[in-house]
Design a protein that fits this description.
Elements: E1 2-4, E2 10-12, E3 17-21, H1 25-42, E4 43-44, E5 53-57, H2 59-68, H3 73-81, E6 97-98, H4 100-123, H5 130-133, E7 144-147, H6 149-158, E8 174-181, E9 187-190, H7 200-207, E10 212-214, E11 217-219, E12 222-226, H8 235-240, E13 245-249, H9 257-263, H10 276-302, E14 307-311, H11 328-348, H12 350-357, E15 363-364, H13 366-369, H14 376-381, H15 385-407
Parallel strand pairs: 3-5, 3-13, 5-8, 7-10, 13-14
Antiparallel strand pairs: 1-2, 4-15, 6-7, 8-9, 8-12, 11-12
Helix pairs in contact: 1-2, 1-3, 1-11, 6-7
Length: about 400
């Protein structure tokens, strides 16, 4: 790329490269880590810890902030997927602490609401029935089932370790975390001027607060929830910041049940027969997916001179529906699945991508893409794999021996 100086002479201009990560809850974040690992090793000339702009919403904000804080894709895999971090281990239950304080406040409000309903009925019994008057008790329902304060506490500790920061203003690269102001319904871009004083950990807590599931997060006397209420990716934030190339990852794709059954990733009737959680997930994914489609069309028109590369699961993929973030095995499977899907996507688009990426000095490692035996494990450990397996076996045997001694 070239730009002109004041004298009209052309000079090279370093292209700005960005990463935009969507939501999807904890498993969506695991999916993004697997996809990023595939991109990281198969795209030569690209350093995911040295991009110009990072944009994240919901789980994507968690992953983007860690990358901006110089955790490599390999470290993300080891810490959050394989649970190998001894210094600062991560446990998924930080996402799911019951909102006990919220429950208590709502229960204390219930007697007053009942009194108000009965009083209203007695004063004007012809206005509405007692049952209708008691509908005011809906106000006693909690604003969320869980409190994700634990996530903020975890990240606050992690980002104050050597070489990291919990301050947007001290990062070497720009990081934007998206959330929505509950009262104004406007998207707020934490990390942008005027909103960069908020700790990164607190911004992520707000961005991951999915309505109904989590209690809204209070910041500066305002309340915030999940940024996907406005947009699924917010890639436009990176483009507005001057990015020439945006890598975007979206884990939130609704399942085409018929296609998933044909592909063997879903049993007939299991989606509609799985109860409310999966139906709500499918509904939410459909809304987000629709917004992302229309949003991508819009930014493609508005920024026709820029390049946006989107990576996401296929519609016949039911893996995220069938997995649990609390299972180490499920996390490894989702991460590996995302890794392989992204590799296949890169290989199927290789000719087109090589042409697009060449102007940014990025090349494809076709030898990696065409290797049928490559996995997350070989990607992480390579020639050290036999030693890694041996050490893991020794640790497992040691734990088993300790357990046998306890039994004795």
């Amino acid at each position: 790329m070239t730009a002109k100086t004041a004298g009209g002479k052309a000079q090279d201009k370093k292209p700005r490269i960005a990463l935009a990560l969507g939501g999807g809850g904890p498993l969506g974040g695991i999916y993004e880590i697997g996809a990023l690992r595939a991109l990281d090793e198969c795209l030569e000339g690209l350093n995911f810890n040295d991009l110009d702009v990072y944009v994240g919403v919901n789980a994507g904000s968690f992953v983007a902030a860690n990358l901006a804080n110089q955790l490599t894709t390999a470290q993300l895999c080891r810490i959050f997927v394989r649970n190998e971090a001894e210094l600062h281990p991560f446990h998924p239950d930080v996402f799911y602490r019951p909102a006990l304080g919220e429950f208590g406040r709502r229960m204390l409000a219930a007697p007053g609401l009942i009194f108000s309903a009965v009083t209203r009925f007695i004063r004007n019994p012809y206005d509405q029935s007692l049952l209708e008057a008691l509908t005011i008790l809906a106000q006693a329902a909690p604003s969320g089932l869980f409190n994700n304060e634990g996530l903020h506490e975890y990240l606050e500790r992690a980002f104050t370790m050597l070489g990291r920061t919990n301050d947007f203003r001290r990062l070497k690269r720009r990081l934007y975390v998206l959330a929505v102001d509950v009262e104004s319904t406007e998207a707020v871009c934490f990390g942008a001027p005027g909103a960069d004083h908020v700790p990164i950990s607190k911004a992520i807590q707000a961005s991951t607060a999915s309505p109904g599931l989590y209690v809204p997060v209070e910041i500066d006397a305002r309340y915030y929830v999940d940024g996907t209420l406005r947009k699924g990716l917010h890639a436009s934030v990176a483009l507005e910041d001057g990015a020439d190339l945006v890598f975007a990852i979206n884990p939130l794709v609704p399942v085409d049940a018929s296609a998933a059954v044909r592909a063997g990733s879903l049993k007939p009737g299991s989606l509609t027969g799985a109860g409310m959680p999966n139906l709500l997930s499918q509904t939410f994914r459909t809304m987000i997916y629709s917004r992302i489609r229309s949003g991508m069309e819009q930014v493609t028109r508005d920024y026709a001179d820029r390049d946006i590369l989107l990576f996401e699961p296929t519609r016949d993929d039911a893996m995220l529906f069938l997995s649990s973030v609390f299972s180490f095995e499920s996390r490894r499977m989702v991460c590996e699945h995302a890794y392989q899907i992204t590799r296949r996507d890169l290989l199927s688009r290789a000719d087109q991508l090589e042409s697009q990426l060449s102007k940014y000095g990025i090349t494809l490692r076709r030898d990696y893409l065409e290797d049928p035996n490559r996995t997350i494990t070989t990607s992480l450990y390579g020639e050290l794999l036999p030693l890694y397996v041996s050490n893991r076996k020794k640790k497992k045997d040691k734990r088993q021996s300790s357990a046998d001694l306890i039994d004795l």
